[in-house]
Amino acid sequence: MQLPTSALLLYGIVAAAVLVYVPFLVVVYGRVKAGYDIAAPRALFDKLPAYAQRATWAHQNSFESFSLFTAAALMAHVTQVDGPLATGAVLAYLSARLLYSSFYILNLPILRSLMFGIGSASIAVLMISSLMQLS
Asked: Per-residue pLDDT tens for 50-83?
């Protein structure tokens, strides 16, 4: 069964919201290893292992990217963008964001930057497709 593009756009937003919290699981693990203090959770950052610090940054960046993707997906939904380009953009964004966080945590900056670019390009495709649909 193939989802209509409009449904994929909305499911994509939900999936992107879940992906925001994937790196946070690594942060939690790092906090436990470093001796988490519930009274001062942010004070622990400097004591986190390097991978958990990078996971924190990936988690923060995921919020930033999520807001733009959500706007682009909703634009595409409202303007009834349809077709393989929009479908590909949603799937590329979701894949890139999962890999972005993984590459960030693993400290692979070139690959991380490539995934950031793919995710950003996917957002641009959705926004531009929406604007073109209006004319």
From this structure: 999 999 999 999 999 999 999 999 999 999 999 9
35: pLDDT strictly greater than 90: no
Global pTM reads 0.93
| CATH pick for 5-134 out of 3.50.50.60, 3.30.565.10, 3.40.50.2000, 1.20.120.550 | 1.20.120.550
Burial class (CB in 10 A: 0-12, 13-18, 19+), 81: buried
